[in-house]
Amino acid sequence: QVLNLKQPADETVQHPPVLILNAGGEQIALVVDQLLAGREMVIKTLGNHLRR
Q1: Which of 19, 20, 13, 16 is nearest to 33 (CA)?
Q2: Among candidate residues 24, 41, 30, the one with its CA nearest the CA of residue 2
Q3: How is 5-20 classified by DSSP, letter by letter?
Q4: Residue 30, exposed/middle/buried by CB under 10 A (0-12, 13-18, 19+)?
Q5: How does pLDDT run across 1-52, given as a tens digit for each residue?
């Protein structure tokens, strides 16, 4: 549904796990073999004042 793809007519069809990432304001999807754990993360730059 997130990717606006047509749903299969057969509800028993198994789909591979997909990671949905937001990168630079764009959503991308990565198909993976399996999910080991679930996590939600926000990664931000430290800014110029913390750079060396």
Answers
A1: 16
A2: 30
A3: PPPPS-TT-----EEE
A4: exposed
A5: 666 767 666 666 677 788 888 777 888 888 888 878 888 877 777 777 776 6
17 contacts: CB under 8 Å, gap ≥ 6:
31, 32, 33, 34, 35
| H or E element at residue 29 | strand 26-31
Look at phi and psi of residue 47 and say left if phi exceeds 0, alpha if psi is from -120 to 50, else beta. Answer: left
Residue ranges covered by each domain of the chain: 1-37
Q: What type of residue sits at position 8? A: P
Q: What pTM value is reported for the model?
A: 0.43
d(CA 4, CA 14): 18
